[in-house]
Amino acid sequence: MKTFKLGKHELRTPAVCGAVIGQNIETMRASVARAINQSADLIELRIDGLHDSTGWEKLLPVKVPVILTNRPEREGGSFKGDENKRVEVLLQGIARGVSCIDIEFSTPEPLRERVMSQAKKSGIAVLMSHHDFSLTPSIEVLTDMAKRLVGAGCDLAKIVTFAGDRKDALRILDFLAQVQDEVAVPLIAFAMGDAGRITRIAAPVFGSPIVYAAAGEATAPGQFDVATMKRLLSELISKGR
Known about the structure:
241 residues
């Protein structure tokens, strides 16, 4: 079984990430506890779901590695404010010692570079992401985006698309299989939507190191809950031996 680095942590693949979102701190704290009880390997804190992010750091520390995310609307998130304020939450997370920061490739480059610089100085992993909620483009387009993410200096890359049908689902998996020799960092890729649900389970077979699962409210269409994802992956791995 392969491993990958997430800041100071070394995780085995596939690692199940409990995605946590909520309108208030109490709801998110309950979801964190639920994810850990269901044996999530790491947690994603989606701060953009909070009506007021003041005091979000009360969610820390967490017993497992944490990916901190503050997703803007343009990438399927809920944050509507100024980009400087959005990025400030990520910088706070770096100061608090979270394991990993998720920064979107679409973030204005000066802000993106600021976050990456601070993270690297602190030994915190940078996951750079790209989301397409409308379609799954060609393998060539996906490969070009993967190279752009890696070229920007991230430690992990993440590409998520929307699958309108089974052909889209197969395309993202085909891309994931082909791109392994094209990029030098671990690449997470899968498709959202009902047609894309199968890619969330199959992606680890094709090299995706992390799979995302809901720890309460789903953070994306087609998401399984943590317990179901752990069970499905366990069955898949045991049958593959």
